[in-house]
Amino acid sequence: MKKLMKMKAILLFALLLPYHGWVMAAPPGPCQGPNKNDPGCPGAEEPPPAAAEAAVVEPPETLAQKFSESLKLEPKQYLFRQGEAAFFVNGPWALGDYKKDLGDDLGVVAIPAGTAPAAPLNGIDGFYINPNSANKEAALEVALYLTGTAASQSMMDDAGHVPANTTVDVTDPLMLGLLEAFGTAYIRPQVPELGLAGAAQRHPCLDFFPYLEYLAAFNRRVINDIRTLNYEMSKVEQYRLLKRHGLAYPSTVFSSEISELIKAAKQIAFPVLVKHNRSCKEYGMKRCDSLAELTQYLYSPDLIPSPDEIFLVQEYIESKENWITRVQIIDGQLVYAYRESIQGKAAFIPDFNHPIVEKYIEITKNTGYDIVNFEFIESQTGSLYTFDINGTLFFKKEIENQSNYPAKKAFQTFIRKLMGYS
Fold first, then answer.
1. Where are the domains positioned within the chain?
2. H-helix segments, 340-418
3. pTM of the predicted model, to two decimals?
């Protein structure tokens, strides 16, 4: 491996483990890779000017297109596809793009063996037939065709799929390398438990940290900069932020150890909600009405794994009128607020001027949130509890139509301001 690194070889490791996100960079020589713009290097370029110093401002449509294209590559893949990383762990589905970028510099190698041949976890694409279907014979015929020689050959040649059918003619060195790697693989069991594997995978937002750091190094203006991503990734950090600004939130304990979580939960009045530290909407959320029910759930197979292994147990706040309130802020200014029921019904709040808005705006000025949506609930006693911060906006047509300053228009105005348009 060290020898290959010194040769700056570009390698694609054939590991079929779920979405590995790491690279190994070849040591760059003088005036190579990230050192190519060092003073004195031939053709060295100055760092790109900051957006505020740009002599020519591109139209928003052009910039939007470029940004959209850049998001198609995660930062580490970008390094690999530009030839600045020695290898990247990925699967055969990426061969087409990698071939296009790297050409003859692309290779495939099996996992380095130790005292025994390496055994990567190998996933299999299968075709499943519904036993309740009235057309089982037709479904079987389609499955047999798709796993036959002709279809498998086409899937390999045109889509980069590694064939399970041994009658397929394989001549591509890259595909042969993958087949060699799979020769000692451990076939992933087809069991229900592995259906939960995706829940514990690395959060895709983590892949933006290096890219945002890169942009910050060149003083690029980023909407909702890298500081906000820390809060997007952790409800614990959100609640710490709220506490620093004197805002109330539901009583919450957290831990990665179930036994410690149960012990800490005794401090909270029931009912409670079990939540993931990293979550989307209500995924992984469960209400428990007693300590016994909480204990049973946390030790049951029904518990959905938390992506970062941290669980929260949070006081359940009974809403005064069965509504939550969303407060939308852009560029440090309130756009509007509206209420939303559990059933999804929304009601516009005209002239919302509650003191909590000033607290929210204060948070945006100290954390890099240019666009943000705060959510709070009013308890039966009239107390307000903020329970979520989202670095995005919610556009509801019925609310937008009632507002004199719709969020979409406010967002467009903000973008034009950043781009130097009046």
1. 1-222, 251-315, 319-418
2. 356-367, 397-402, 407-418
3. 0.57
Q: Is residue 97 within 8 Å of 89, Cβ to Cβ?
A: no
Q: Using CA atoms, how far apart are residues 367 and 226, in angstroms rounded to an integer?
A: 9
Q: Do 336 and 407 meet the contact criterion of CB atoms below 8 Å apart?
A: yes
Compute CA distances 223 → 74, 220, 344, whole Å: 18, 10, 28
How many whole angstroms separate alpha carbon 162 and alpha carbon 159? 9
Dist CA 142 CA 369 (whole Å):
51
What architecture (CATH level 2) is domain 251-315?
Answer: 2-Layer Sandwich (3.30)
CA distance 185 to 181: 7
**What's the rounded Cα separation, in Å, for the pair 107 and 9?**
9
The alpha carbons of the chain give a radius of gyration, in whole angstroms, of 27
pLDDT in tens, 37-76: 444 454 544 444 433 333 333 444 444 444 444 444 455 5
Bridge partner list, 222: none
| 23-24 vs 87-90, strand pairing mode | antiparallel
* Topology (CATH level 3) of domain 319-418: D-amino Acid Aminotransferase; Chain A, domain 1 (3.30.470)
Q: What are 378's strand-pairing partners?
A: 384
Q: Are 397 and 344 in contact (CB under 8 A)?
A: no
Tokens 């397929």 — which residue?
A: 168
Alpha-carbon distance of 324 to 246, in angstroms, equals 20
Tell how strand 186-187 and strand 252-255 pair up.
unpaired
Closest CA to 344 of 398, 405, 402: 398
